[in-house]
Amino acid sequence: MSQSAKTSPRAAAASDAPESAAGSKAAAQRLKMRRELAAAAMELFATKGYEATTVDEIAAAAGVARRTFFRHFRSKEEAIFPDHDDTLIRAEAVLDVAPAHEHPLDTVCRGIKEVMKMYAASPAVSVERYRLTREVPALREREIASVARYERLFTRYLLAHFDETEPHDGNDDPLLAEVAASAVVTAHNHVLRRWLRSGGQGDVEAQLDHAFAIVRKTFGTGIGAGRSLTSAPAPSAAAPAAAVRAQNEVLVAVARTDAPLEEVMRTIEEALRNTQPPGGGS
Questions:
Q1: What is the Cα–Cα distance from 243 to 98, expressed in whole angstroms?
Q2: Checking DSSP bridges between strand 250-255 and strand 242-247, what pairing results, if any?
Q3: 68-91, pLDDT tens digit by residue?
Q4: Secondary structure (H, E, C), 113-151
């Protein structure tokens, strides 16, 4: 190969940069247009009513042609949710680059936080959108369809942490993955609705973390932790959650990584009581 035909990795990356920048600019313009159409639709829905508003009117209010509207949305009810496609991509990106040591359920919780960020970025718009979806059945159905997309994404992700190459009787892994994914989405939506009903006030992220802690406590030990989950040997059913032994005046506790915290603490408390001298050690 001649010297002139060779291309260094750095040169190749440089040649890709303009193309990448152009793609990012196009995506930003697309999202801007979608949001402008959505704002026009929401204003018309609020003033004229959903049924009385036409696609032509939405396009005209946004200053674009009818065909431009249909390049971005398939129907007028879809126009009220301009960010869900991009948010779904961001949520999937969170799953794709998750650290190997992170519990898969924690990863899913981080993924759906992208949805909350979308709503929290424009509280006034989100509150108005919530009001409209409560009043218009078609918008409510569109919202439900969007929620189902997130549930499918998270269910697939959690299922990937089970070994399904050898199906067996009583295999509840698919059930657990689907229920856990649904629980994460339901917890998120519960907090989101409460925040929207309050007019977008309050620390919604703290509320969301509290809800996720409940889901994690309920489903976390069943799914297990880490990307090596599918190949890790399952703990013996007879293995205790924690074992405690005394060394002079020190207690040493050893616990399974999937042991419930309450059970570990109860084991330690019982060991402390058993090692107390008569009279309580005073």
A1: 32
A2: antiparallel
A3: 999 999 888 888 888 888 899 999
A4: HHHHHHHHCCHHHHHHHHHHHHHCHHHHHHHHHHHHHHH
Backbone angles phi, psi at 98, to 5 degrees: -65, 140
pLDDT in tens, 240-254: 556 656 555 555 566
Output the CA angle 85-88-89, nearest 5 degrees: 90
Strand, helix or coil for residue 183: helix
51 is written with which tokens? 């049924």
Beta-carbon contacts of 10 under 8 Å, excluding residues fewer than 6 positions away, are: none
Residue 267 CA to residue 108 CA, distance in Å, equals 31
Is the pTM higher than 0.90? Answer: no
- Tokens for 30? 């697309």
Rounded Cα gap, residues 117 and 119, in angstroms: 5
C-alpha span between 274 and 263 (Å, rounded):
17
Rounded to a whole number of angstroms, the distance between the first and last alpha carbons of the chain is 86
User: Among positive and negative, which fits the CA dihedral 171, 180, 115, 225?
Assistant: negative
